[in-house]
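Sequence in, structure out. Go.
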Amino acid sequence: MQTVSSILWRRLDAPGHDACRLERNATAWQLDGAAVFRLEDGRIGQLHYRVRCDLHWHTQWGTVRGWLGGSAIDLAIARDARGHWKLNDEAVPDLSHCTDLDLGFTPATNLLQLRRLNLAKGEGADAPAAWVDLDGGGVLSELMQRYERTADDAYAYEAKRFDYAATLRVTQDGFVRDYPGLWSAEA
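Output:
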């Protein structure tokens, strides 16, 4: 893998940071990152993540390893060619319409959806994702999201599940640099 770009974020709603790099080889794109943070309930977490996509930005697999409070986290997520998802080798039903993997503890995975959608200014699209819920014990469930490109570096974003809507500002490579109320890029 060759590094294409990297970024460092500061978490805004709680103490924390996340560092990520975007990598590429002849057959795939990959995100490789690490997040450290404290949740509202006081638990501290340290998680390393990796997500691999094909050249068209369709998620193939992802891993999340580390710890959250006193619990070890070791998740392996896979999506097969027919769109079926597995979490730690167990089938997860009702997610085959989800193309993207969303790791809720990092802004890194928004890049995957934005690159795959490749929206022109004024265009919008729904992007349902298989979402990793660490607070729920590491389950995989649907997260309905919507993106609308409003400028070269801006997208109107909505995730109704969390009653969240904001304008996301992105870097030239597609990393979110300003995620209002949640994350801000430092480098």
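Check: Residues 60 and 80 are 7 Å apart (CA to CA). Helices lie at 110-117.
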